[in-house]
Amino acid sequence: MTRILIRAGKEPWVPVTPETSLAANVIGTNSGNAVFSTGVFSALATPDAELEADFFRVERGQTPQDIAARISDEYDHVVLPFANAFRGAFLPYLDRWTDVIGRLTIPVTVAGIGGQFSSNDGEIDIPQNIGESASAFMRAALAASPSVGVRGVRTQQMLDKLGFGPEHVEVIGCPSMYRADRPVVVKKNTDALDADSRLALSVTPRMARRGESTSTMATLVARAQQEFTDVTYVAQDGQDLAMLMWGDDPGEPKHPGMPIDPSHSLVSEDRMRFFVDPERWFDHLSPYDFLLGSRIHGAIASLIAGTPAYVLAFDSRTRELSEYHAIPHRILRDTDPHVPFADLYEEFDEAKFADTQARNQANYVRFLESHTLRHTLDDPALAAGYRERLAAASLPPGVGAEFVLSTSIAVQERLRWMRQSVGNAPARQELEPLLPSWAKNGGKAKRGESVGPVNPKGSSALPLWKGVAALPRRVYRGLRRRARALFR
Q1: Distances from the Cα of 405 to the Cαs of 108, 212, 271, 454, 488, in angstroms?
Q2: pLDDT of 419 above 80
Q3: What is the bridge-based pairing of β-strands 169-171 and 108-113?
Q4: How many helices (H) and strands (E) does the chain have?
């Protein structure tokens, strides 16, 4: 049995409540992260492989020395699906992975890492801090693997500029697109869109320093609601989940027409959803006719569900993946906000997409095999066990706006106070039994040792009050008195 550690918030078949997904940041601030990590699980889920998620614990707590020693002892391979990791905000985590990889004694595979630049063509400007961290990471990764898989040509050009040429770097696109459990096959439900077509939106509501692009997106959102009778917005930011679940202040909107506030009609009419599990996300998008938006993994989720998608790219990460995977797209800032939706739908070319998908998957298979990783992509029957685990899992449904629409501001404020008082105790209780042994109890657990109770029904969910009851008696009694007064 080959033991593989995968960088992910959790295993795809493990149910984690939306409350804990938010409190413990299982989604990594963006639910799109789970889309590409589940793709890696699907591709590597052969009968002779034992796959575990790191729950992002490599990036949180314990020293790199201790983590590397435990991982080297307990696993045979580490696989790291990344997104736009070559960016300023992610450098502390990238540097930590560089340190850990440099200490590992087992192979490492980096799949789908990318940079984040302007959507413009031409010379790439690499800030010094990003260049230094990216170079150090590449040196560590290449010492543990034959090559590094990147998202697209722009990232390849960036690394070439840093001295890592084609012998070190392979363009593989996004790992989310290659799956044995849900082969990506897209068919149009209708020849042309009309007012009765089902439309899904996937927008980036907080595009900083992109005023014109944000205004264009807001106009398209408003038009979609006017021109179609069935429109749903699928959000991805953790801030949006907090707003839906707890009524948290979503922050100052970059544009009043963007759906980040309960006053927006997509929220007030309960046409906004948030999924902490990609499986439920795919299921939700499957019956739709078309998805439009600026989020690349929102579009990819739609394609995995079999629904045509169109990307309004606003930076290199969305553009290079759209180009590599033949997803129809245009640059958002150059888009006419009054472009007919039917014209965008018509641009989706089923045959071109299918041909590109087959070619890209064959390339990805070669990449995995060059890293001595067995996979399910040439024989979907090998993924039968993976499909069975997903089918048996009680994954939570999408989160809608029921809470913010059915409770008063006063009640929301008091519940937020209670949530802050309780802290992360319920989330810790839910996650602790699920963690790999090296990450449990601060890394003190031995291999095969369990820490904490496991729900006998197989679900990891623990109610909020289990966490409250675990608090010191004085705090617990105070919260109980306030709760009784609140609902009196």
Answers
A1: 47, 31, 12, 34, 21
A2: no
A3: unpaired
A4: 20, 12
Compute the half-sphere exposure of residue 393: CA atoms within 13 Å on the CB side of its CA. Answer: 22
Contact 237, 30 (CB under 8 A): yes
DSSP 125: P
CA dihedral 449, 455, 458, 463 (to 10 degrees): -130
Mean pLDDT for 152-172 is 96
**What pLDDT is stored for residue 471 in this prediction?**
45
Kindly state the tokens that stand for 290.
Answer: 């078309």
| Alpha-carbon gap, residue 82 to 172, rounded angstroms | 12
Pick from 364, 363, 150, 390: which is nearest to 282 by CA?
390
**Banded pLDDT at 461 (limits 50, 70, 90):** very low
Using the Cα atoms of residue 411, residue 412, residue 413 and residue 419 in order, give the sign of their dihedral.
positive
Element (H, E) at 46: none
Q: Which of 307, 153, 164, 167 is nearest to 234 (CA)?
A: 307
Q: Which residue has the tokens 């790999």?
A: 436
